[in-house]
Amino acid sequence: MSLRDSLFNWDGMANSLFGPLDPAPNAGYDDPPARKGFFTDTSICIGCKACEVACKEWNDVPENVFAMLGTSYDNSHSLNANQWRHVAFIEKPAKATPPVDLGMPTLGAAPNDVPEEEKPDFQWLMSSDVCKHCTHAACLDVCPTGSLFRSEFGTVVVQDDICNGCGYCVAACPYGVIDRRRGPDGDPSVGIAQKCTLCYDRLTDGQRPACAQACPTESILFGDVEELRRTANDRVARLHEQGVMDARLYGNDPDDGVGGTGAFFLLLDEPEVYGLPPDPVVTTKDLPTMYRRAGAAALALLAGAAVSFVGRRP
Amino acid sequence: MTGPEQRTDTDRATDAPQQSGARHRGSPARDSIVPEADFESYYGRPIVKPAPWEHDIAYYMFTGGVAAGSAILGAGADLTERPGLRRTSRLGSAVALVLSMFFLIKDLGKPSRFLNMLRVAKPTSPMSVGTWLLSLHGPFSALASAAEVAGLLPSRWQRGPIGLALRLGRPAGIAAAVTAPPVAAYTAVLLSDTATPAWHSAHEELPFVFCGSAAAASGGLGLIGAPLGESGPARAFAIGGAVVDLVAEHRMEQSMGISAETLHQGSAGRWMQASKGLMVLGATGALLGRRSRAVSIASGAALMAGSLCTRIGVFEAGIASANDPKYVVVPQRERVARGEAVRHSG
Ligand code: SF4
Ligand code: SF4
């Protein structure tokens, strides 16, 4: 594409900014491997944090800045530069109406003799969150240095030797994933944007990412995105059959606002309960409009100045 | 919960508000112009991350606006033989540009990081586009002001390279004026091309707010520096800019939805209030005080200050909107409820 086309022919680029797409071929890889990703099934997550630990160990991610929040068992706060996997713990009032009993095999604890009034009146939801490796990754779109790139596996990776710490990707990510590293002192990558690479180094070596390898319940599945989507659909259908009507997929739809994510989830409640945006849209979808409006404003500025001089003699 | 405006420090990842339970009712909003929203969130913690930028970025946008507007005024003054206005605008433009680069580099950490951005040209990154725009505009602006300085030297020195600079003043000034408007406008795209609710939802009007603000500030500078007899165009430019700023800001608030609240609350609210007051005051003074040098100077200063307040106010509103999950969840939920879920069609 010529410079002129890439600057002005937004229509030709429309699909590069929004809509369903296979990211690696779109980024120019000639014969890339199948797109890789995660399917995180939160219905079987036990909150053991093995993924958090495995990720830190393999990727040499420093300890998070330690601070107890005192609100729940979540002591790792959020996804950020020092936390590439984050297990959310949600404690909330139990559902008033239990799922319909269809006489099917039950999910979770087996039926027991505990009288209703002695059962806890709250429920726990746990979910291991991670960078979504969006089809349309806002972080990658806005990075001015080209430090963020699309890998041959369709994932999004930061090159910390190129990043200049401008922080633009931080504000652009609709999921609040990427951040600049804040500590510890002396770490050469302080101030540099960091996030999950989907263990790019392990992938090129034919291995699974560390978190998926470590997860004892197989809540984190790694594989070809196409196949994971099928697995996810089967799993939701099965949960629905079992009466768990709250089970839903999040991020799997290639027609959604970010073109579907490479890492998607099975949730048991609304996304926002887990700290996820309900229906995010990649910011660059509106970029053509933004440039057009800015162009109009710029012309108005020039015209306004010209008018200010017209008809006035010094 | 801790008000969002109290959480605008850089230490955000760890200072999430203390809140029990996942059910979360929207924080009571003072001066709310939208009914209070019910929504759920993860312990009230932010969903998107606020831009990790300091006020430097607001100063950068302000000085960039002054530089761009003054470059245009300077060329106009040059072509219409207004030496006083030309001198103020050309020198003001160059000084503002230097300050603007200073604030940008201060935020980036070191000069080499600015150069690092020139390793690629990426139309999908407004920051990359802006870096190239500045690199295109800067040398012309510098040459025009060099010519201005050369003109101040004794005439026996105005030979050789100095004489050349003098002759290049006009073409360089015109080139600077032509490349200036995008410099003023792109900062709006820079902010709105983010997931920050208050910035993104303002993307239609923000360029007009910022260009109006740039005209008000640079016109204001002209009023301060140019003699009364030459300041007519600067006066018109400044008044027009202030009007555009105020009108576009009003329309922006109408179209932003719930995140417009953040322009009325906390410190962002105070900056925006100040900006409106100063713009009205400055424009009125510029309109009525055209015979008084003192009133002109005061109005010019008010307009410049108003422009600075607009930038800081918009900047802070964005940070506040990113810190409160309400501004992420509620608009997206409402959009889905309206049946407008963002889906790719065809
Ligand atoms: S989730 Fe955020 S950081 Fe990850 S690819 Fe998407 S935009 Fe980038
Ligand atoms: S912080 Fe680094 S990775 Fe993020 S946009 Fe800036 S240069 Fe790119």
UniProtKB/TrEMBL annotation, chain A:
Q: Where, by residue number, does the polypeptide cross the bilayer?
A: 290-311
Q: Which SUPFAM superfamilies match?
A: 4Fe-4S ferredoxins
The organism's place on the tree of life at top rank: Bacteria
Q: Which GO terms describe its cellular component?
A: cell envelope
Q: Does the keyword Disulfide bond apply?
A: no
Q: Where in the cell is it found?
A: Cell envelope
Q: Which InterPro entries match?
A: 4Fe4S_Fe-S-bd, 4Fe4S_Fe_S_CS, FDH_Electron_Transfer_Unit
DNA damage in keyword set: no
Keywords from the UniProt entry? 4Fe-4S, Iron, Iron-sulfur, Membrane, Metal-binding, Repeat, Transmembrane, Transmembrane helix
Task: Enumerate the spans annotated as 4Fe-4S ferredoxin-type domain.
Answer: 36-64, 122-153, 154-183
Question: Which is an annotated GO molecular function term of this record?
Answer: metal ion binding
Question: What Pfam families does this protein map onto?
Answer: Fer4_11
Q: Which residues form a coiled coil?
A: none
Q: Quote the protein name from its UniProt record.
A: Formate dehydrogenase iron-sulfur subunit
Q: Which organism is the protein's source?
A: Nocardioides daedukensis
UniProtKB/TrEMBL annotation, chain B:
Q: Which domain of life is it from?
A: Bacteria
UniProt entry keywords in alphabetical sequence:
Cell membrane, Membrane, Transmembrane, Transmembrane helix
Q: What is its main location?
A: membrane
Cellular component GO terms held in the UniProt record: plasma membrane
| Basic and acidic residues bias: start-end ranges | 1-14
Membrane-crossing ranges are 57-79, 91-109
Subcellular location field:
Cell membrane
- Renumbered to this chain, region (Disordered) spans 1-31
According to Swiss-Prot or TrEMBL, what is its membrane topology? Multi-pass membrane protein
What the entry lists under Gene3D superfamilies is as follows: Formate dehydrogenase/DMSO reductase domain
Give the family, as the similarity comment puts it.
Belongs to the NrfD family.
Q: Which PANTHER family match?
A: PROTEIN NRFD
**Protein name in the entry:** Formate-dependent nitrite reductase membrane component NrfD
- Where is the organism placed in the taxonomic lineage, from the top? Bacteria, Bacillati, Actinomycetota, Actinomycetes, Propionibacteriales
